[in-house]
Amino acid sequence: MIKVLRKYNKPILVVGGSLLMVAFLVQPSMKGAGDARAKQVALKVDGRAVKWAEAAESDAERYAMSAFAGPYLGLLGIRDRGHHWYLATQEAERAGFVGGRLDGRSFVPTIARVMTEVGYERQFQGFLQQIMQMPQFQQQFQEQIQKTTEALNAQGREQVRSRTRMSDEEFDRALARLRGLDRMIVSYRFAARLSDKRLLAAVRREYDRAKVDYVFVPADALAKDMPAPDDAALESLFNRYKETPAGAGEFGIGYRFPPRVKFEYLKIDRETIASRVRPDPVEARKRLTASGLKPNATEQEREARKASIENDLRKESVDRILREADQFVRAEILKVTRRLDEDGPYRKLPADWDSTRPDLRKIGAALTEKLAAQIGAENAAASGATPEWLTAKQIQDMPDIGASTLNRGPTTRIPFAAVAMQAREINPAPQIPVQAGVPFTENTEDAKGNRYYFTLTAAAKESAPADWRELRVTLDRDHRRLAAFQKLSADREAYLNASVAAGLDGIVETFKPPADAGPDAKNPLELHSGAVLSRSGFQSGGDPAVNVPAVRESVANLARALDATQKVGEMDPATRSLAVAVPSSLGLFVCRIEGLLPVTIEEYRLLADRMAQQLQMQEQREMGEDPYSYDALMKRLRVELVGKQESDEHETGSPSTPSPPAPGSGAPAN
Q: Is the pLDDT of residue 656 over 60?
């Protein structure tokens, strides 16, 4: 090769020199072309020409903020469409909402919180509200916000900067513009100013309270006396409500059930193992000697130190036994599942899998035999199964496994109910690879340290049963309840008149079980005294069956019609009594107002801000179009796109400049 280079060195030099000369001559012309494009007009905003260089800088910012804080842009309504970011940030600049670099940097914790909320909502698919009620999860949530903040300030920031070639100052300026957008849009949404009279009237209308005595007559109290429906009636009822979610609809009747699972599980009882473990006396003596106990220590101090060492040894032994048990269970599961073909993180199941899959009951029996031989614990492992479909809420209400969590790291605790709902058969984007029919090889753990292994034996998305006959008992009950409710609704005036004539306790007495009904028979009705409610809800004494808008509105309207200058107890009972049919609870609410509790000045001061926000949001909804939407900005600012630009329907990048351009380059990226 060297000989060839030496032989043809002159021709190579000539050709190479020629190429260099061409490159030297062409480069300035290419740069000139880029400079020329940068100076061209990309769009006109209210008659002002915007050059391609300025548009490119703005598009780089939009790309950086989308990569850095995508969920936040979505909440503000800023879309990757056209020049939306440029137009909106220009409005924020002109309105004085954009601060400096430090203002942008200090916005990161807020972005982190929003990203954490969005991520958890995506992970738990609607179960987040229930999960957030758990104190340990609230702490985990706050810790995750802190971690996200740190990650954004470190890796996230540097990764986005490296992709966009933005300087620290440029990135902070983009963050400041994002915060300015947030200020501007929030300010607009809550810009309405309410008069004192309007605000006072709204607070009084919503929060003036009434004290009532009431009786709720459920349809169930009459259902047993309704005629039995035939199969045609049951099938018709099923077809009518099969696409209505359970508990929803006009009558609270629905046969489209939420995601649900069946499962079997194996429990390893830590306390049982601990009760059979005996600390090694030789090791205990060694540790006591090495513990630094003073020679003149009292007998009480010596016994306390000895007890502490024995507890540590017992805990170490229990932890070791649980690790060995964990290895045993996993080995028994993998002995079968490792032979299956992989399907990503899942397995392809053969036709005979139901009869050949690992059985947690058999694994539990083998583990029990092993622990009995090892430490004499004959009941440390126990298996169970749920033959009925269970929703996430029903799983949370279960003892033992229902209170367990999947521990991922020192602070992450995922409730078992949320893990079960990660099944690929339910969740379209699961974060945890759970598959129906395949034992989950990780264990969950409860507060006592008990460990659980489970297999989902079945998993179903939100759906109705394929055949109405699966719900025959439920359909028969619901059909009778509907018939009873129709009768209650028809007799509403009769119940109201009875309450005025004989009092509410007279209605309760009507449903008293006969003397020969037996000791277990109970009156389905109960007189509730002194319940306090407003239009917004019950403050005391209410139950879910009557805490509905129809009841609250009716009581509030009747209370407002009463003369507040008179004593309520001296008013005619007919003027302060009402009966309201409650379709959602299938029953009749009968009440008598016994007192009026108007909002006090102190309460008004506490409630005024909240009511103002509610009214402002309501007005925003009624006004319709958001003035900072892409279409509204384009129209209001009389934006003209100049030259050849992509369609405005392009949603994944800016139509006017390819993404991401390099800031400060003087021309859009190619």
A: no
Q: Is the peptide bond before 415 cis (omega within 30 degrees of 0)?
A: no
> Cα separations (Å) of 569 from 526, 575, 596, 610?
22, 11, 10, 33
**Three-state SS at 142:** helix
- Confidence class of residue 293 from pLDDT cuts 50, 70 and 90? confident
Measured at the CA of 29, the angle between CA 28 and CA 31, to 5 degrees, comes to 65
Strands (E), 308-433: 342-343, 346-347, 381-385, 405-408, 412-415
Dist CA 468 CA 255 (whole Å) = 9
Q: Measuring CA to CA, which residue among 31, 230, 82, 229 is closest to residue 633?
A: 82
Confidence (pTM): 0.59
pLDDT recorded at residue 590 = 97
As a whole number of angstroms, the distance between CA 261 and CA 390 comes to 5
User: Which has the closest alpha carbon to 340: 353, 329, 327?
Assistant: 353
Give which of 164, 158, 183 is closest to 99, Cα–Cα: 183
Q: What is the pLDDT of residue 228?
A: 94
Closest CA to 639 of 96, 188, 174, 91: 91
pLDDT-derived band of residue 606, with 50, 70 and 90 as boundaries?
Answer: confident
Please state, in angstroms and rounded to a whole number, the distance separating the CA atoms of residues 216 and 525: 7
